[in-house]
Design goal:
Herpes Virus-1, about 5% strand
Length: about 250
């Protein structure tokens, strides 16, 4: 081949190749690359959505756990408050029971003192062991009674007869007015205006039932205004309407 013909042949071959369509292999590779890019984008979006769902689920679980914890704490506080209220009620009931027991013991001791004075004109003045004093009275009367201490004292009173009533009358001026003394009667300033007699139930009478003797004072106001049965039914002082923590039986000395 002569010089120049070789270059001419190469140029014509290049032009012929340019005029022919691209090969199927090259087109398939290009399509495969496009599909791969699209699949990668879809997978990335799916992964992002999955992470977002997991985060929302974790947040929801945390909120639910916080709500359950708040409910448990509220229930514990309510239970503690209820237990405290029950404990306070029990303490008040026990204090009231003790005050009533003390009042009954004091009344029984006064009855024994009257029996002693009726029998021998001597009394221990309310001191000493009460059962032993009752035994001495029984021995003095030559009686052997049975039952509770109060029943035995009642039997002794029946044996003695009218003398006990006379002794009781002699002791009334010294004991009953003391049991009816209030803070105002004692000359202490209660900070409250005096109430008319018609609203107080009398100097010695319960201002609620107007039948029994005033024997119980409200705490903390200190008003001696109610009898034992009426005080059990009241949560506030009937005189000043202040809340009552407990009712106490005063012990004059």
């Amino acid at each position: 081949m002569r010089p120049g013909q070789k270059e001419l042949f190469a140029a014509s071959t290049h032009l012929a190749d340019a005029g022919r369509p691209k090969s199927k292999t090259r087109t398939a590779n290009e399509l495969q690359g496009g599909f791969a890019w699209g699949s990668h984008s879809l997978l990335a979006r799916a992964a992002a959505e999955l992470r977002a769902q997991e985060e929302r689920a974790a947040q929801l679980a945390a909120e639910q756990e916080a709500a359950r914890r708040a409910e448990r704490e509220a229930a514990e506080l309510a239970g503690a408050a209820e237990r405290a209220a029950l404990r306070e009620d029990a303490e008040l009931a026990e204090a009231l029971r003790r005050s009533e027991v003390d009042a009954e013991e004091e009344a029984l001791a006064r009855r024994v003192s009257r029996c002693e004075e009726a029998v021998s004109s001597e009394s221990t003045g309310g001191g000493g062991d009460l059962p032993r004093r009752v035994e001495r009275l029984e021995a003095s009367l030559g009686a052997a009674t049975e039952g509770s201490l109060e029943e035995r004292v009642g039997a002794i009173e029946r044996l003695i007869g009218p003398e006990v009533g006379e002794a009781a009358e002699q002791h009334l001026p010294a004991t009953e007015p003391l049991a009816a003394v209030s803070l105002a009667d004692a000359g202490l300033d209660t900070g409250r205006p005096a109430a008319p007699e018609s609203t107080m139930g009398g100097e010695t009478t319960c201002i609620v039932c107007f039948a029994r003797v005033k024997s119980h004072a409200a705490v903390p106001c200190g008003h001696l205004c109610a009898c034992g049965p009426c005080s059990e039914l009241m949560r506030e002082c009937p005189y000043c309407r202040e809340p009552v923590m407990m009712w106490m039986v005063p012990r004059p000395v």
